Amino acid sequence: MARKMALNFSKLCILILVGTVAYNEYVVYYMDYFNWPRVPDDACTILFLADPQIQGKTLEPPGLLGSIQRWDSDRYLGNVYSWITSKYPSATTVFLGDLLDEGSIATSEDFAEYAARFKAIFPSDRVKGVVYTPGDNDIGGEGMDMVTVAKLDRYNKQFGLQKPVIEACPKLDIVPVSRLTEHGHLNITSKLENLSKNRTAVVISHLPILPLNGRFAERVMTDINPDIIFSGHDHRGSVYTGTRGSLKHEREMSFFSKKEDISPFMVDVKSKNSDGVLELSERITEIVVPTLSYRMGVKEMGAGLAVFKPETGSMVYHNLWLPARFPLLYTYVASVIVVVLLAVVGKIIDVRRIMRRRTEYQAFSRKKFGALL
Predict the structure, then answer these.
(1) Per-residue buried b or exposed e for 80-118, using 16+ beta carbons within 10 Å of the residue's own CB
(2) Which of 111, 195, 279, 360 could join 106 in a cystine, given CB atoms 3.0 to 4.6 angstroms apart?
(3) What is this structure's pTM?
(4) pLDDT tens, position by position, 13-25
């Protein structure tokens, strides 16, 4: 007679839990990491990280639930930053605002605590250089939440710009601007003397510039006249192309999607004239980078990677898509439920096995010793 195989429910439960953790915390990140492009270390590369918005204490649930939510969000952001920077350590990293979710409404003590948390999640020593630009959640400027000097001062103390124009690569400058304020190094006029037509000017802003148009967009295009613009705020990524002279649409804004990704795509930020000299392209492009955080109410998270060739006036943009977090959290819940059910079933089987062995022993005892009783 064939021997029955006994199922070890304890080992099965451990295997399910370990497998779930391994998949959720390593495999899914590696799957996206594997699809990101390879870039030479000496390339002129800029990483764009938009709207990380680390969670605060006021708008989150109190007690243990809020602590767990902040912990998981911080851990997710830290994981994706670690994977991205391990792939592109030679890149200059640009944070496109809304670094903190409650920065503008926080007390001075809480703001300092949030800033320390942010720097622990996103250590600056993992990349070539870091540039921060403020968002409305950092300094105010949305609705009744006004920008104040006090908010600007504490933001600048932690994340402020060191100069109005930052050299990211030879012949390429990053030019931070803001619809929210022109305080300090964000003042457009102060940047003009640091700009050169012979260098590529990459404007960065938290709020989109060209899609919103208006006086601010006109000033950016007239005074700075950038080669290309990158922004955040919308949480969903997109690309906008307009005619430099009039800012009119050449085509509708195209939204990014992980399933039907239009990246990588090339943008000729400069073109050669009849004399073979590079000059600004007739088209101006603004790329709105997807959010880095899974807490922003969108299904797809990502970062932006721009590889520039200033000597030819071209740029290639890639979306670095990230794993969706909520489905992974649901798998944790499902695995715990399965493990609990298996543990219960295993316990029931163990009890039945013990009872069956006891019955068999009693029957054996009566048969063997029944004549003596």
Answers:
(1) bbebbbebbeebbbbbbbbbbbbbbbbeeebbeebbebb
(2) 111
(3) 0.87
(4) 888 889 989 998 9
